[in-house]
Amino acid sequence: MSEVKKTKYFNPYIGGVLLGLVLLAANFVSGRGLGASGAIKSAVVSTVNTVAPSHAENSAFYKNYNESHENPMKSWLVFQMMGVLVGGFLSGAFAKRLKFKVEHSPKITSKRRIIFAILGGMFFGFGSQLGRGCTSGSALSGMAVLSVGGFLTMACIFGTAFALAYFFRKNWI
Amino acid sequence: MKMRLILASVFIPLGIIIAAIPENTTKPFKLTAEELLDEVKDGTQFVSTDELADMLVQKDPSLQLIDVRSQAEFEKYSLPGAINIPLTQILSDEYEEYIDQGVKMNVFYSNGNLKANEAWMLTRQLGYENNFVMQGGLNYWAETILNPQAPKSVMADDEIAKYDFRKGASAALGGGNAVVTNTNTVKKTKPTIKKRKKKKRAAGGC
Amino acid sequence: MAPLIVNEIISPDTNLLIAFLIGIGFGFVLEGSGFSSSCKLAGMFYGYDTTVLKVFFTAAITAMVGMLFFSLFGWMDLDFVYINPTYVTSAIVGGVVMGVGFIMGGFCPGTAFCAISIGKLDALAFIGGLTLGIVFFTEGYPLFEEMYKANFIGTPTMNELLDIPRGVFALGLILMAFAMFWVGEWAEKKFPREEY
């Protein structure tokens, strides 16, 4: 617990209870859980709509999406993600953690860290669309409502990450 | 470290509580307007006067007749074994145990179909089961059970059998001279179903 | 009675405002718990820091117990709460792909947003990658559509699948969570790490 004091993070259990209460509030008010990747999808779709409207009309995915969503940017998740940016900033400001930097293990270069971050992001982005949600949308929110899909996705994410941890150990330890 | 134990001592008892008590399944407004309409279309809530008369003659213990007319009307005439729950008080707490139960077969009746049907609709929308409506109300009851019309001799055998049954039931249930006031019933006021939008699950996901 | 939006107690626009407020809470708690640090997140998989496990499961059981009690008191109708649909194939494949992304990138989308809000540039790269990954999916959708929609089994919940009462499953999950916390704290002692 000594490192927790040093970095002034919440006790993980307290943080967990607070996060659970936020999730409970989301379900209580809006009848839904939290999410993150959906907001990026909204941004992607609305960008495509603006930049290449003819492409959006001809491509199956955008067509379906636009038919079921009036305005992709006026979605619950987009507003929620804007809140996350504000909330994260506030917390960082209170704890004096605001600083531009590339965080990486001392054994690797910043460049290597950035490359792996981009690659990891690509995998995660693709997986989140296939799995209908990321760790927050599918795994966490799904688990809270006892959804089978949520548990399955959670087990696969953490299971795979554990299984592959050995091969990527140089990046982290 | 210590926090884990504090949390465990809160969550594990809560988990035991939630595991020990049954789920809350009573929810107001269980049915959507569409679902209710489907039931109305099928007419599943109706019980014919013949079936009722049969149950009364048999003294079927599962039958509970409920008179939804006013108290004055109830005192003037009522069916055997009926209790009086005026329509205006159908949602009051003191009658809830009669209406929301899974043991007896409740049959609402009024002079015509109207009030009884309204009572059924209210209770059905609350998700209560085992409530029914006597088809045609007391007027039809008087017409078919208390003062049955003798069928012509050319009629089919089952018509005659029905008449014989009705005649017998009539004698058993004190028919022949009952006076049913033909006052309210199918007049004016259309049954107003409160319109509710169909609720959808909130959309979600990533 | 909740959910408020379903019962039209609040308007859709208010709902968006609430989404913003909930997002602030979400971001604040994530950052405050240390989820803005990819090293802390990755620590989960090497045993030196199991914050992720603790926060994640504590949050899940808190929300779950909360909802079960709200339902019990009649404050909330769980029938109208969104339950993630289960498409077995895509849940597994998607989960595996996300797992690869997690160990490579060290973030998940929510934590990456949280990290960028305090200036972590690796999170910015991760978000760039996320966008590319999503574009890859949306552009190639016809290729993945079959897999995306395969083995749909509706919106079952775990207790329905196991055919046990909801509360009993909840208790089991709580006990499992605390067992994992215990293992996690044991691992932190076994694989200590001073500075990261």
Automatic annotation (TrEMBL), chain A:
Per UniProt, subcellular location reads as: Cell inner membrane
Residues in the signal sequence: none
Q: Keywords of this protein's UniProt record, alphabetized?
A: Cell inner membrane, Cell membrane, Membrane, Transmembrane, Transmembrane helix, Transport
Reading the lineage from the top rank, the first entry is Bacteria
Q: Please list every transmembrane segment annotated in the UniProt record, as residue ranges.
A: 12-29, 76-94, 114-131, 143-168
How is this protein situated with respect to the membrane?
A: Multi-pass membrane protein
Of the GO CC terms on this record, one is:
plasma membrane
- Tell whether Transmembrane helix is among the UniProt keywords: yes
A Pfam family annotated for this chain is Sulf_transp
Family assignment from sequence similarity = Belongs to the TsuA/YedE (TC 9.B.102) family.
Recorded protein name is: Uncharacterized protein
What species does this protein belong to?
Marinifilum flexuosum
Automatic annotation (TrEMBL), chain B:
List, alphabetically, the Pfam families matched. Rhodanese
Q: What region holds the Rhodanese domain?
A: 59-150
- Which keywords fit this entry according to its UniProt record? Transferase
InterPro entries cross-referenced by the UniProt entry: GlpE_sulfurtransferase (IPR050229), Rhodanese-like_dom (IPR001763), Rhodanese-like_dom_sf (IPR036873)
Q: What is the lineage of its organism?
A: Bacteria, Pseudomonadati, Bacteroidota, Bacteroidia, Marinilabiliales
On whether Cell cycle is a keyword of this UniProt record, the answer is no
* Matches recorded under SUPFAM superfamilies: Rhodanese/Cell cycle control phosphatase
So which domain of life are we looking at? Answer: Bacteria
Protein name per the record: Rhodanese-related sulfurtransferase
* Gene Ontology MF: a single term: transferase activity
TrEMBL record, chain C:
Q: Which residues cross the membrane?
A: 16-35, 55-75, 87-116, 123-144, 164-183
Task: Output the InterPro entries linked to this UniProt entry.
Answer: Sulf_transp_TsuA/YedE (IPR007272)
Q: Which domain of life is it from?
A: Bacteria
Which Pfam families does the protein's record reference?
A: Sulf_transp (PF04143)
- Keywords in alphabetical order, please: Membrane, Transmembrane, Transmembrane helix
Its recorded name reads Uncharacterized protein
Q: What is the lineage of its organism?
A: Bacteria, Pseudomonadati, Bacteroidota, Bacteroidia, Marinilabiliales
